[in-house]
Amino acid sequence: MVDDNIRLLVVESRSHSGVADELLRGAAQAIEAQGAAYDVITVSSALQIPTAIAIAEEAGHRPVGVRYDGYVALGCVIRGETYHFELVAHETARGLQDLGIGRRLPIGFGVLAVDDEAQAWARAKVSEGDRGGGAAKACLETIALKRQLLGQSR
């Protein structure tokens, strides 16, 4: 259990809705198991995830915004016949990494980049790979580390 009120924002891409549902189920279970709170927003493409997180972070520093302790990025990019797959996968990862390092944001990375739907399901299923749960746990661990190293209680 977390000793402080931790609030996360889960940003999920709905490109592959069944896989997205399973990733979210794993993330929700992991977050709830630690006693943290969370909100969920949905975007249509994985490429939108870094932008949505950046906007949410900026909003959290304004009077009307919600302040989040960390973010969980969930999505699935399946290889196709064109170079588009690599652009989406690489630029999504780069955007999230840039946010994490540049703004010191705890971000759990749960964006799958796979060759086919079978690989996606093997990684997304809570009973198998549980990448959604893993991303949420990584985010919570990074929040704890950040608080420890910066001497913060919140």
Q: For the terminal residues, how far apart are their CA atoms?
A: 15 Å
How many E strands?
Answer: 4
CATH topology: Rossmann fold
- Give the total of domains: 1
Q: How would a crystallographer describe the biggest sheet?
A: 4 strands, parallel
The CATH architecture can be named as: 3-Layer(aba) Sandwich
The CATH class label is: Alpha Beta
Q: What structural class do the secondary elements suggest? A: alpha/beta
Overall 3D shape? globular
- Note poorly predicted spans: none
Number of helices: 5
Strand content: 15-25%
Q: Strand order of the main beta sheet, please?
A: 2-1-3-4
Q: What distinguishing features does this structure have?
A:
alpha/beta, Rossmann fold, four-stranded parallel β-sheet, LS/RS, 6,7-dimethyl-8-ribityllumazine synthase, LS, transferase
